[in-house]
Amino acid sequence: xxxxxxxxxxxxxxxxxxxxxxxxxxxxxxxxxxxxxxxxxxxxxxxxxxxxxxxxxxxxxxxxxxxxxxxxxxxxxxxxxxxxxxxxxxxxxxxxxxxxxxxxxxxxxxxxxxxxxxxxxxxxxxxxxxxxxxxxxxx
Length: 139
Known about the structure:
Elements: E1 2-7, H1 13-23, H2 29-50, E2 57-65, E3 68-75, H3 94-97, H4 102-110, E4 113-119, E5 122-130
Antiparallel strand pairs: 1-2, 2-3, 3-5, 4-5
């Protein structure tokens, strides 16, 4: 897996998305858009909340292999499992629904697998997206 470590700060989003985009260039457009949107959501949440009010680092690992993109986000911020957060109720109006929960809902629905673990003082959030290789038939 290739790896990028940056300060966990919103202004680093461009570097993170450029890194991931270069690694997933072979993916079909729809999968790239879904992956890039999920990466933005996850990284911005790490940048805003993991170390607040301090700034730590975030490491992004990315691999596109055998028709699957795997991306891991690692940080040493406060432990937080976004998968345990109650999903936003999209049947309610925005006023009644309250703040938060839509981003992780979108990530869960657009990725094929999501996983969280806190081990050795580190948050590890992993997303996976299957993609077909353009011009190749699936068997």
